[in-house]
What we know:
The structure is a homodimer. The first copy, chain A, is α/β, with parallel strands linked by helices. Chain A has two domains: 3-162 and 254-334, Rossmann fold, CATH 3.40.50.1820; 166-249, Rna Polymerase Sigma Factor, Chain: A, CATH 1.10.1740. The first copy, chain A, has 13 helices and twelve strands. Chain A has helices spanning 50-53, 107-120, 134-145, 164-179, 184-202, 205-211, 222-235, 240-251, 263-267, 287-296, 313-316, 318-328, 330-334, and strands at 3-5, 9-11, 17-19, 22-28, 36-41, 70-75, 90-91, 96-97, 126-132, 150-156, 273-279, 301-305. In chain A, the strands form three sheets. Chain A has an eight-stranded mixed β-sheet with strand order 1-4-6-5-9-10-11-12, sandwiched between helices. In chain A, strand 9 (126-132), helix 3 (134-145) and strand 10 form a beta-alpha-beta unit. The longest helix of chain A is centred in the middle third of the chain and has 19 residues, at 184-202. The mean pLDDT of chain A is 95. Chain A binds chain B through residues 163-165, 167-169, 171-172, 175-176, 179-180, 182-183, 186, 189-190, 193, 196-197, 199-200, 204-205, 208-209, 212-213, 221-224, 227, 251, 283, 286, and chain B through 163-165, 167-169, 171-172, 175-176, 179-180, 182-183, 186, 189-190, 193, 196-197, 199-200, 204-205, 208-209, 212-213, 221-224, 227, 251, 283, 286.
Amino acid sequence: MPQHKLPEKFVLQNGEILHQASLHYEIEGEISNQKEIIWICHAFTGSATVKSWWPSLYFENGGFIDPKRHTVICANILGSCYGSTGPESINPDTNKKYGDEFPEISNRDVIKAFIDLRKSLNITNIDILIGGSLGGQQALEWSLIEPEIIQNQALIASNAKHSSWGIAFNELQRQAISLGANNSISKNEAIAIARKIAMLSYRSYDDFELNQKGKNEQDDWNIVSYLNYQGEKFKGRFSTDSYFILSKMMDNHNIASARNGSLEQILSLVKTNTLCIGIDSDNLFPLKEQGLMAHHIPNAKLEIINSKKGHDAFLIEGNKISRLIEKNFKKNYYEKA
Amino acid sequence: MPQHKLPEKFVLQNGEILHQASLHYEIEGEISNQKEIIWICHAFTGSATVKSWWPSLYFENGGFIDPKRHTVICANILGSCYGSTGPESINPDTNKKYGDEFPEISNRDVIKAFIDLRKSLNITNIDILIGGSLGGQQALEWSLIEPEIIQNQALIASNAKHSSWGIAFNELQRQAISLGANNSISKNEAIAIARKIAMLSYRSYDDFELNQKGKNEQDDWNIVSYLNYQGEKFKGRFSTDSYFILSKMMDNHNIASARNGSLEQILSLVKTNTLCIGIDSDNLFPLKEQGLMAHHIPNAKLEIINSKKGHDAFLIEGNKISRLIEKNFKKNYYEKA
Lengths: 337, 337
């Protein structure tokens, strides 16, 4: 469990200071000139253990990541509950958990911390930066901040600014959690409901019709059992305070904020070779969002994955994503190999 | 406030009996041979006062309903909280409110009650039956039960069987309400959250992007203020128990249930001249559902409304619906006039 200590005082974008914060990260393979660096930015409820949540990106499962050629790095983001400093951490100023007093974290704060880690690892070149959903938002930020470091990036089911639609879904998940905050039993129940609401934005009409039709032997709707199962699974594994911090991080994503120019102008400043991948059934980050990025980022490519899985296809369709990465980064990346 | 008494013992589809139940209904105009009868089936949270929730259907607002030619009838559905017997009514067996002990009501029960009302009004011919959403589900049921009575019907943003997707949205609204059921403050708050979750299914990405973008002067997201406003407005006006009864009515809608044949076969038995209207941005009752109905109902027409308003366009776009009704029912209906 490698842990990277951030500077004693880590200044956030909003001016607040995190003391003695650290990042949990994982490296598969070694950092050397013989290996290409793939840095993966995880999504909302992800962790630094890429293989656990994105197995289909790996060679052994039909994906492109090959341990002989690639070194994979992933760091858990600030504000999460999977090893990096977040609301479940002890605040050194009070010796108590931060809880709901954890400061607001922006995607730029996340990248600032990643850059600190990158430097400590003596990495001066990232061959491919990959991010889906929230992770794609962060990757795009990184490519704007360190264009000389990020050679290629794949932004999957992501956007340049979070939509009112996406904010609405996140807000209602937070409101469901707040509704249950009165007592610990229902607080736990409430994060399950938040997860189930999120599932409506992660999946699609066709996915539910194809896979969760009708009733089961107990005369319950299969879709209800399925959603309840997803909620139960999630209960034990995520912090309600992290849910607030990370969903607000997503809501506030806007690459044009505190920069000099319109969204389109900022996109046009991206120097990294960029591949935007969209999913045709994605209700949460619809195709037009990847289209906008691809249109304005110089020389960017847009690829569309046909899937009925909705937004979650970015996790499920790692093999298709792998083929698109191989195809589009061949010139810039694979020929070098 | 006309009230129609149903038979002392009203037997429901599931075998349970409602005692001394009644329907609240409204009639605009008189029932005579000189007037054409338009019967409107209201949607989930609607009432018998059509003009209050569907004003754009009326001539004075650009719609087709003309008091000189039409008599409009609408009855509040069983299980609702707008005048017909529902969970807020007194159970004559206990002299207490039914509350959550109100029996399950099906769309067929609703139509059985409407037929009882129709007969009491000596109506033997309904020129146009109109229903949107849940109301369209009920209209379709009625046309199967009384083909000789219903001459024309417009089924708007509706379906022949409710989808797993739709059930998922309804279920999570019910779960949010249950989460708040522990105390009365949060129960009230919970129905507001249920309404806000519903808004996500009633509207669309484009609607929110166009109309609720960015932040207001208090630095709150406009979309959040908008949803909170919708939730607040709803709090006072709907019963949580009715919310359960009516959303389950919708979930259980399936014209093939307890009938002899597949969904497609049952649709092919419809004798009423049918117009199916879909909305291109409808996420809750997507176009394919109206397409399925139009494909299998003999001689049915399918019309598509272009709107960014999502499912709610069925309420908002009454003028467009009026033009489609005029156009499609001209032969069967207007030439008779």
